[in-house]
UniProtKB/TrEMBL annotation:
SUPFAM superfamilies: DNA-glycosylase. GO terms for molecular function: alkylated DNA binding; DNA-3-methyladenine glycosylase activity; DNA-7-methylguanine glycosylase activity. Keywords: DNA damage, DNA repair. This is HhH-GPD domain-containing protein. SMART domains: ENDO3c. InterPro entries: Alkylbase_DNA_Glycosylase/TA, DNA_glycosylase, HhH-GPD_domain, HhH_base_excis_C. GO terms for biological process: base-excision repair, AP site formation; DNA alkylation repair. The keyword DNA damage applies. GO terms for cellular component: cytoplasm; protein-DNA complex. Pfam families: HhH-GPD (PF00730). Gene3D superfamilies: Helix-hairpin-Helix base-excision DNA repair enzymes (C-terminal) (1.10.1670.10), Hypothetical protein, domain 2 (1.10.340.30). Residues 3-142 form the HhH-GPD domain.
Length: 146
């Protein structure tokens, strides 16, 4: 679609992604493994994995389903919970940027462990994800290059 001289593209359907060759997916700048994972996930959707039904699951159940899918590990699942599913209690505590932000802003040291981040963030309850995200943005904007 073109609007005011700008061209916009839609995201391919699961059918289109599943039918693409790994080589074609790699042309989209995906690594070999990521191309395989995208293809496998689109095939799961075609087999009946309902992205809408996933929204009805508890956060724990959703995490378990996501991590059962090939190519989706802890970090990806936690980030998907936070960003795609708006599960604000989710926190990708293994994320290096978040660990550095916590280290600099809260712990006053070079790097924080994932466990330190997770433990500290518990005090924020169901809003720990967005709060950690704001810390990350503050760190990136004002502190990263100090």
């Amino acid at each position: 679609m073109e609007v005011e001289g700008l061209r916009f593209y839609s995201f391919p359907t699961p059918e289109k992604l599943a039918s693409m060759s790994i080589e074609d997916l790699r042309k989209c700048k995906l690594s070999l493994n990521k191309a395989r994972y995208v293809k496998a996930l689109s095939q799961e959707v075609l087999k009946g994995l309902s992205l809408y039904k996933l929204e009805t699951l508890s956060t724990r159940e959703l995490y378990d389903v996501l991590t059962s899918l090939k190519g989706i590990g802890k970090w990806t699942a936690e980030l998907a919970l936070l960003i795609a599913f708006k599960r604000w209690e989710s926190l990708p505590s293994d994320d290096l940027g978040i660990r550095k932000a916590f280290a600099k802003i809260i712990f006053n040291k070079p790097i924080a462990s994932a466990q330190e981040v997770a433990t500290y963030a518990e005090r924020w309850g169901m809003y720990k994800g967005p709060i950690a995200y704001y810390l990350l943005i503050y760190y990136e904007k004002f502190l990263r290059h100090q």
